[in-house]
Fold this protein.
Amino acid sequence: MGRWVRWWPLPILILLLIYPWVYRQPYFHLLGFNTLMFATMAVSWNIMGGYTGYKSLGHSAFFGLGAYLVAIAATRLGWNPLWSAPIMAVVVTIVAMLLGWIMVRTSGSAFVIATIAMLLIFRLLALNLRSITAGAPGLSQPLPPWTPEFSRMPFFYYMLVWLIVALAVSAYIRRSRFGLGLLAIRDDEGKAEMVGVNTTLYKVVAFGLSAYFVGLSGGIWSYFATHISPVFAFDIIVGVEMILMTMLGGLGTLWGPVLGAFIFVPASDLILFNFGSTTIHLAILGALMMLILLFLPQGILPTIGEWLEERRAPRAAHTGARSMAEMHEKKPV
Amino acid sequence: MTTLLRTEGLVRRFGGITAVKDCSISVEKGSITGLIGPNGSGKTTLFNLITSIYKPDTGNVYMRDKKITNLPSNRLCHLGLSRTFQITRLFWDLSVLENMIVPVRQVGFRSLLGPGMYRYEEVRAMSLLERVGLDHLTNEPARKLSFGQQKLLEFAAILMADPELVLLDEPAGGVNPTMIRFIMNLIRSLNKEGVTFLVVEHNMGLVMELCDHILVLDQGAKIAEGPPHTIQSDPVVLDAYLGD
């Protein structure tokens, strides 16, 4: 059986592939797209927030930047968003690296505040650079060429492809020397620097990479939504939700952000659906998140991992010191 | 003998206190040099100035006659200068083996994109872990180790970077006598292999036995230096320690 365990993502992938054909109402396509999009963004955010331990609250700045770049390219240059989004996301990454180069000089809460400030600046720019962004009313894009009843399915599959790419990148980073350096920075940055890790460079690259898939998601979303405005494109709640899902699934784990998104997005939609007539749904969501943080502070995956570890034959207290006699015999050569 | 590390007129003030005052020292290549002095005499501050954790107000640090003042700490490591900390610092959530791999010299983007650990690095790490008696704990997270084991791991890990000069901040602090013996033997055998040591230590017996040259700091300035037997009977040193 053990041999097959590693293929566990396959059935889930098959389920995702047939999902839009089973649930054919447009609402479910919207829900599916949103879930995949947030999963992609959470995986991306996790590279900086989870692996490196620098928690950005302003990642929706990259979401909005990606959305606007793609929308502007579509309206002015006629570039199709589906292929311009991955290209514009490269621009977002470069912008993120330049800003990151300044921001990673701070750490802890100062870094968090710097990222929020960054978001607010982007929002102000989007509101006021009217000749480029059309200001508060926002930009409209041409509709996708395919028929309306079919309209959301291509977005769903396109987003699924990018989620897989984001996961592959995240997995690759985690197993690379670069990823080991990021984990070292999270544990003790000063020590990492002292043993030869160029911490500034590592953090800047991680910040840029973690902006890529968020910017990309923004670009795809702008085409999906067809109309974007500063208030929705640069919404701090989007950034907060990325973090909440990651923490729910397991901060710094590969699959945690995906699991978190697959629980969080449908749940928040369900709550919105039932209690949306008032704004009470936000309070319910907040209360649920607080409960999760109280009882599963590490997130679902690490908690399960620990639980499995404990259930497995209680390991002999093997980590104790070797006997001193043994130590004594072992003369350094 | 050639000079490996040299400081020239280092000064560092914290508010109204001058922690290091016109401090010029030199460490000969191939030596085990001791750095002693009463509490608050500026030993750790001097270490922090040498390793760019603090910026000196004035003065310079040279390694092999190359100026390394204020060079980023990670560059110092690549130049062959490594250190341990008074309070052991490890990557607590990483495994023992991963703690060994992080300090491996990393050159260029190619190596960054490579796998977390090459086979030959693992072999090297395992032989060093065996040498310090931690090879049975390879996959344990560092935080699960005992205090003494953590100290040994910190020591072993910096060796992965092939340092030419190692600054040890209280290698015997808080460990039992058997372990002290073990660490001393380790320092000696590494020294024979060509590693130079600068050691801050409060255990005088150990310093006198281990070091071939001793520097004495008091109130941020060097007040004496020489081989152990002359330091032990130096009236200036005795005065600094016992007070007047």
